[in-house]
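Dock adenosine-5-diphosphoribose; give full complex structure.
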Amino acid sequence: MRVLILTGAGISADSGLGTFRDAGGLWTRYPLEEVATPEGWRRDPAKVMEFYNARRAQAAAAVPNPAHEALARLEAALDGGVTIVTQNVDSLHEAAGARNVIHMHGRLDGALCAVCEHRWPAPVRMAPADPCPACGAPATRPDVVWFGEMPYRMEAILAALSQADLFVSIGTSGEVYPAAGFVEEAAAQGIRTLELNLEASRGSALFDEARQGPASTLVPVWVAEMLGD
Ligand code: APR
């Protein structure tokens, strides 16, 4: 059995990390054009850095919840049969013990050189003038994918999706492509699809099955079903 699991901000909501589009979500408090686009970065890198330094500190203080833990348990039990593709930039899947995690929107605990594309572990507080450890250029940025930039490892993701027997979407609104299109991609290939989300997402009707509720409740129940507990 091969499962491709897509996760979004909703899976980390029960760990105290905000979502983007719910009431009080990040994009209701920060103009995303100013803090999550290359234009915003060019206009005011210090402001963007502050935004990501704050999110990095918050994510570093968060702990995995039962949903992250259940997915790590499923991955261990299916021995190579689980691929987690996360839109999240926190590292709670890894903190819960998951190993095969693809961060398609990058990760807060990564730093990237805007000149030579060298990557290294992000310092807790990052500044635009931090010199790149490889080329020395003062061109450090968060290793996250901004609107208008290409998500990471799309080829590997689509290859894993087409090998899957089951596609599961957890905690995402289905508002942002290309992730929002994965369910159609799966359905077109005859792959069974399941959504676990607090409420019906934009793409709910496209899923063979959709369950509503908090991920920290729904995901452990689903994993227990998968493992025949
Ligand atoms: N359990 C399960 N689902 C939840 C929970 C919860 N406790 N709380 C909220 N949700 C659901 C919401 O109903 C919503 O459908 O999680 C989803 C969160 O949606 P968004 O805030 O849009 O987050 P996400 O789908 O991850 O956004 C995708 O957009 O801004 C970009 O790069 C950013 O990766 C992000 C992408």
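Observed: Residues 18-61+108-144 form a domain with the SIR2/SIRT2 'Small Domain' fold (CATH 3.30.1600.10).
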